[in-house]
Q: What sequence folds into this?
């Protein structure tokens, strides 16, 4: 069955060279696609987790009594919201990367402690985290003051009120905007291509550079893969949003 499938696409490439689905019958190219897809998934998962954590902590810090802390968070948000993510990525990797401590695993070669994959995760997480801070801040501000006062009247500290009362309610209100930002983050991971992170776009470009006849099919595969990744995330966020929904409260 598999042999017939591969033979069909090998014959298709011979008769219609513009439709060379080489990664369907060549194990080496299939391995490059799967490696790139796995790297894209890992990048997406790490960036999603870190950006949400940044958003939660940043939203809490924006309500802090310290003007210095609020100013630092606001400066961070303005910097990352108002500069292109690709420029941030290049700045992190080429400008800050030169100050990264190095180690020598074999006594000869010096390797930076933060790889290009690490810088991609850091940069993209900070970028999406800035938007998440504003999303969570809007959710926190929508929680009525009477709710906070009721929690504090029960003896809760500010941190306990935030983690046990305010944030769970704010999260429900923030879910639609949070979903949109996380979906945008997954699509933005392909910019890691610029610093040679071997994600899906990087591997795809490598394939059609080696086999120009595979360009159109590989572009089609790229679109389908990103559509699938975004679709899975969108469905998951939708189910989570419905599960968290409180009838009569929030969106």
A:
């Amino acid at each position: 069955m598999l042999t017939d499938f591969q033979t069909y696409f090998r014959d298709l490439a011979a008769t219609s060279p513009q439709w060379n689905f080489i990664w369907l019958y060549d194990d080496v190219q299939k391995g490059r696609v799967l490696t790139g897809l796995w790297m894209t998934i890992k990048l997406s998962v790490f960036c999603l987790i870190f950006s949400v954590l940044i958003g939660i902590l940043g939203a809490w810090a924006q309500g802090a009594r310290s003007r210095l802390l609020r100013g630092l968070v606001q400066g961070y948000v303005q910097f990352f919201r108002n500069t292109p993510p690709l420029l941030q990525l290049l700045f992190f990797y080429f400008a800050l990367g030169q100050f990264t401590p190095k180690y020598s695993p074999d006594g000869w070669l010096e390797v930076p402690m933060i790889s290009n994959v690490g810088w991609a995760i850091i940069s993209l997480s900070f970028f999406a985290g800035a938007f998440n801070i504003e999303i969570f801040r809007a959710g926190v501000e929508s929680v009525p003051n009477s709710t906070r006062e009721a929690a504090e009247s029960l003896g809760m500290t500010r941190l306990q009120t935030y983690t046990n009362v305010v944030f769970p309610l704010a999260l429900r209100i923030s879910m639609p905007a949070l979903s949109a930002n996380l979906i945008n983050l997954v699509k933005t991971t392909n910019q890691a291509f610029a610093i040679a992170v071997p994600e899906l776009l990087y591997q795809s470009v490598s394939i059609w550079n080696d086999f120009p006849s595979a360009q159109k099919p590989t572009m089609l595969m790229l679109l389908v893969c990103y559509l699938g990744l975004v679709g899975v995330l969108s469905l998951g966020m939708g189910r989570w949003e419905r599960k968290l929904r409180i009838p009569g409260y929030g969106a």
Summary: Residues 148 and 161 are 7 Å apart (CA to CA). The longest strand covers residues 102-103. Strands lie at 102-103, 111-112.
